[in-house]
Specification:
Shape: elongated
Radius of gyration: 35 Å
Helix content: 25-40%
Oligomer: single chain
Number of strands: 14
Largest sheet: 6 strands, mixed
Number of helices: 10
Structural class: alpha/beta
Length: about 525
């Protein structure tokens, strides 16, 4: 009897132990499931946070597109926070953002050391964020949450920008006498004392702000310069002509190499001059007149008796002269200016990882090229004054019949009149006139500018060269003195430079047309915004 009672008690005890063991096993099983499930959740949330922080760092780095005087450390933090909020990243418990603006110990280690070469400055932002991850199953064993932390380093591209500004004689043609203004009220009636379009006058005080359209062009360029983040971005300035105050050379000039100093950049833009050649010798004869462009004055001793800018030698030549110096007169060497822009970007101080930009503003077609004098390695000595089609200085009767399909006498200076016909540097034309025979290149300044644009667009850099072009004024769309009037010569060239140069694989820019000066500020602002968009992609 006693034995049966004891056995029953033992059986009941074993059942209780089993329940306890099962209970402990269930806790362990839940813990194991929780470990797997919540660890997976942890990894998922870490991945989300990491992607969010990576993107936030890039977004914050884009704040470097703000002008340097407007940018503060809080701009980076606000940009990172806004991006994380916008993408509904898990609740952030801590956000730490530092950029190369700071000079303290929190400055990202990859930044250029303070006081180092400005060329090596980088647009970096470090972002470190922490977030709380709450567990589901692991809370059963008391592990309710944990904190995850991740970091990222974002970088925006630095900019190397070259401004190519037309400073040819045409950039003084819209200047008006004191108190005058156009129908669109572009001219300031308070400008006093200026009484002609003579570039000798408008380039000197107190009239230095009176040259039009150059003054308005400089104002727009200065507004563009305000969008640059100095200390990181660099700007170079190329003028289409020499910048001497008197007896200026017609060759393009690198006014300012790539520079990170705001004062230097703005001074270079403000000091740009309209091409100011020598004063014509009114008493000169064809046999002794000097070559090149000159300023025709009614009274050579009085700069206020301006008549025009002219090519005196060409006007005095006779038809029997086969070697006039007309190619030495035009001053719109677009190809040479593009060559200088490329040299500025790719010189010894180049930055291959920066975003290379060239902005070109022209008021008319190309009508000059480099010469053996200013580009000895690129122009044969036979072309002393640069390339200029034979049609410019030979009567049409001297040219062969076949050649007349491409060349007709009396086009625009040093152009062949057919913008859609592109010649190679080796293309030639033969002529015979009064027993004189010769063979001359048909290669012209328009062809030269396209070739230099191709060279520029294909320069070696991280993203190539992006070229923006602006055509200013009615001359850009004029087809006067062209054999083929289907497209304006100047606009066709500007469109090619911006949209086609270098081939389809190049990161092309945009072409803009400004019929009047009032459009320039809007266009330069649009270019600045387009550049910011491209470097953020």
């Amino acid at each position: 009897m006693k034995k049966n009672v004891l056995q029953k008690l033992l059986k009941r005890s074993e059942k209780g132990q089993a329940i306890i063991l099962v209970a402990f096993a269930m806790v362990g099983l839940v813990a194991m499931v929780g470990l797997v499930t919540d660890t997976g959740l942890l990894l998922i949330e870490y991945g989300k946070l990491k992607r969010g922080v990576d993107a936030a760092a890039i977004s914050a780095a884009q704040q470097y597109s703000l002008p340097s005087e407007e940018l503060t450390e809080s701009d980076f933090t606000e940009a990172a926070q806004n991006f994380l909020n916008l993408n509904e990243t898990r609740q952030i418990t801590s956000l730490i953002v530092h950029s190369c603006l700071t000079t303290g110990p929190d400055r990202p280690a990859q930044c250029n050391p303070v006081g180092g070469n400005p060329k090596d400055n980088r647009k970096l932002v470090s972002v470190t964020a922490s977030a709380e991850v709450k567990f589901s199953f692991l809370s059963v064993i008391g592990i309710r949450s944990t904190t995850i932390t991740t970091s990222a380093l974002g970088e925006a591209a630095t900019l190397d920008v070259v401004l190519v500004i037309d400073t040819s004689a045409s950039m003084a043609y819209e200047t008006r006498p004191a108190g005058a203004y156009s129908d669109t009220n572009r001219y300031d009636p308070d400008r006093v004392g200026f009484i002609s379009e003579n570039p000798q006058n408008c380039n000197v005080a107190p009239h230095a702000d009176a040259c039009e359209p150059l003054t308005s062009v400089k104002d727009a360029a200065l507004a563009f310069a305000d969008t640059i983040n100095y200390g990181y971005d660099r700007v170079a300035v190329v003028a289409l002509t020499g910048q001497e105050s008197v007896n200026a050379l017609r060759h393009p000039t690198l006014v300012l190499p790539l520079n990170t100093n705001e004062t230097d950049v703005k001074s270079a833009i403000s000091d740009l001059r309209v091409f100011t050649p020598r004063v014509c010798d009114n008493d000169a004869t064809f046999s002794d007149v000097a070559s090149g462009t000159c300023i025709q004055l009614d009274n050579p001793s009085d700069p206020n008796t301006f008549i025009s800018v002219r090519c005196h030698y060409y006007e005095l030549r006779t038809l029997g002269d086969f070697f006039p110096k007309y190619p030495d007169c035009p001053s719109s060497n677009v190809g040479g200016a593009l060559r200088l822009a490329g040299a500025a970007l790719s010189g010894a101080d180049r930055r291959l990882d920066s975003f290379w930009v060239v902005l070109v503003l022209l008021s008319g077609p190309a009508n000059a090229t480099d010469t053996p004098e200013n580009y000895p390695s690129g122009i044969p000595n036979a072309y002393t004054y640069g390339y200029c089609p034979a049609s410019e200085f030979y009567p049409s009767s001297a040219l062969n019949t076949d050649a007349n399909t491409d060349l007709v006498y009396d086009y625009r200076p040093c152009t062949d009149g057919r913008p859609l016909v592109r010649h190679d540097v080796s293309d030639t034309i033969s002529f015979s006139y009064n027993g004189w025979t010769d063979t001359i290149s048909t290669y012209d300044p328009d062809d030269y500018a396209m070739d230099q644009a191709d060279n520029l667009a294909n320069l070696l850099s991280g993203s190539g060269v992006t070229i923006y072009t602006v055509g200013l004024g009615e001359e850009v769309r004029s087809t006067n003195r062209q054999a083929d009037t289907s497209v304006p010569m100047a606009e066709h060239l500007l469109q090619y430079i911006a949209l086609e140069a270098g081939g389809p694989d190049v990161n092309h820019g945009q072409y803009f047309y400004a019929p009047v000066l009032d459009d320039l500020l809007k266009i330069f602002d649009a270019i600045a915004r387009n550049i910011a968009t491209k470097i953020s992609q």
